[in-house]
């Protein structure tokens, strides 16, 4: 069954390229092949190869998605980091990638650089090194917590000039990343004062919706 041949006439039966291949071994794949209408041999051969490559690629991408979601569980930073969707400008995807953490995919928060010159949030890479081992999650180059350095200042200043929209309800102000934490602390102050005043009046403190604290 391992021999591959392409008869000029009649439907060709599809066989796995090797008996141990998980990708070829799926039944749906086999049935699909048998039902396919006859067509020139070159096209057929090409389709089998292309199909096979696509399946492998898909399996690989699924593996990547899985490890990404595992890493996101490890970092658990959804509530403390900012989504790239908060950026007020619709930047090219490649630029957004360069200013976001390759572990959590948020906008880089307190970024650090590895020896292999990859960028991560400090929290993310430290948690990740602990969880998966001492190598870079992007390229697998050996990496230890002591190897991490601050990125060059010019990169950090670009990061700090990016503008995000404040997610606080009734605010929605456009703030640069450099001033964001100060802006958010203003909200916290107001919230605390507000709560205090409400308590003094004897009423129940009003619940403020502050998603990012
Ligand atoms: Zn195969
Ligand atoms: Zn994050
Ligand atoms: Zn991160
Ligand atoms: Zn790396
Ligand atoms: Zn605000």
TrEMBL record:
Residues 101-140 form the RING-type domain. Its main location: nucleus. GO terms for cellular component: DNA recombinase complex; endodeoxyribonuclease complex; nucleoplasm. It catalyses: S-ubiquitinyl-[E2 ubiquitin-conjugating enzyme]-L-cysteine + [acceptor protein]-L-lysine = [E2 ubiquitin-conjugating enzyme]-L-cysteine + N(6)-ubiquitinyl-[acceptor protein]-L-lysine. Its cofactor is Mn(2+); Mg(2+). Residues 162-191 form the RAG1-type domain. GO terms for molecular function: double-stranded DNA endonuclease activity; protein homodimerization activity; sequence-specific DNA binding; ubiquitin protein ligase activity; zinc ion binding. InterPro entries: RAG1, RAG1_imp-bd, RAG1_Znf, RAG_nonamer-bd_dom, RING-HC_RAG1, Znf_C2H2_sf, Znf_C3HC4_RING-type, Znf_RING. It is found in: Nucleus. The keyword Transferase applies. Residues 202-213 form the NBD domain. Keywords: Chromatin regulator, DNA recombination, DNA-binding, Endonuclease, Hydrolase, Isopeptide bond, Metal-binding, Multifunctional enzyme, Nuclease, Nucleus, Transferase, Ubl conjugation, Ubl conjugation pathway, Zinc, Zinc-finger. One of its GO terms (biological process) is adaptive immune response. SMART domains: RING. The keyword Metal-binding applies. It comes from the Eukaryota. Its EC number is 2.3.2.27. The NBD (nonamer binding) DNA-binding domain mediates the specific binding to the nonamer RSS motif by forming a tightly interwoven homodimer that binds and synapses 2 nonamer elements, with each NBD making contact with both DNA molecules. Each RSS is composed of well-conserved heptamer (consensus 5'-CACAGTG-3') and nonamer (consensus 5'-ACAAAAACC-3') sequences separated by a spacer of either 12 bp or 23 bp. Homodimer. Component of the RAG complex composed of core components RAG1 and RAG2, and associated component HMGB1 or HMGB2. Interacts with DCAF1, leading to recruitment of the CUL4A-RBX1-DDB1-DCAF1/VPRBP complex to ubiquitinate proteins and limit error-prone repair during V(D)J recombination. Belongs to the RAG1 family. This is V(D)J recombination-activating protein 1. It comes from Phyllopezus pollicaris.
């Amino acid at each position: 069954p391992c021999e591959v041949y392409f008869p000029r006439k009649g439907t060709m039966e599809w066989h796995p390229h090797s008996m141990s291949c998980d990708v070829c071994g799926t039944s749906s794949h086999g049935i699909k092949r048998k039902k396919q209408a006859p067509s020139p041999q070159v096209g057929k051969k090409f389709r089998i190869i292309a199909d096979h490559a696509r399946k492998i690629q898909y399996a690989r991408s699924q593996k990547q998605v899985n490890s990404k979601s595992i890493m996101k569980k490890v970092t658990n930073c959804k509530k403390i980091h900012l989504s790239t969707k908060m950026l007020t400008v619709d930047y090219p995807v490649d630029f957004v990638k360069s200013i976001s953490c390759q572990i959590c995919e948020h906008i880089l928060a307190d970024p650090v650089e590895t020896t292999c010159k990859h960028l991560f949030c400090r929290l993310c890479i430290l948690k990740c090194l602990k969880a998966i081992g001492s190598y870079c999650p992007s390229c697998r180059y050996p990496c230890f917590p002591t190897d991490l350095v601050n990125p060059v200042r010019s990169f950090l200043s670009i990061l700090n000039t990016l503008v995000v929209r404040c997610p606080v309800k009734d605010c929605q102000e456009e703030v640069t990343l450099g001033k964001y934490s100060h802006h958010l602390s203003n909200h916290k102050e107001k919230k605390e004062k507000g709560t205090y005043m409400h308590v003094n009046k004897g009423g129940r403190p009003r619940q403020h919706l502050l998603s990012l604290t």
